[in-house]
């Protein structure tokens, strides 16, 4: 799943540490979300969505494959 968290965070002039404090997670969690190594829980996705004032769909982009493949 791709996301725009880094783009939106940088647009606000925030570093990962400040953003992490604002949404009450670790800086490592923010880094993992931004690099796509971790998909946030639905609850955290809503927190991020509310923070940026964007819909979840505008922040987290689910790319569907042509077939139902298991990874």
UniProtKB/TrEMBL annotation:
**Pfam families recorded:** HTH_3
Q: Which residues form the HTH cro/C1-type domain?
A: 5-59
Molecular function in Gene Ontology: DNA binding
Q: Which InterPro entries match?
A: Cro/C1-type_HTH, Lambda_DNA-bd_dom_sf
Question: Quick one: signal sequence residues?
Answer: none
Listed PROSITE patterns:
HTH_CROC1
**Domain of life, source organism:** Bacteria
Q: Which UniProt keywords apply?
A: DNA-binding
Please identify the protein, giving its name as recorded.
Transcriptional regulator
Native organism is Sellimonas catena
């Amino acid at each position: 799943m791709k996301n725009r968290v880094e783009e939106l965070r940088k647009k606000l002039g925030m570093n990962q540490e400040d953003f992490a404090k604002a949404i009450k997670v670790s800086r490592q969690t923010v880094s993992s979300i931004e690099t796509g190594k971790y998909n946030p829980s639905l609850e955290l996705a809503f927190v991020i969505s509310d923070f940026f004032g964007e819909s979840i769909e505008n922040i987290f982009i689910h790319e569907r494959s042509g077939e139902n493949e298991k990874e």
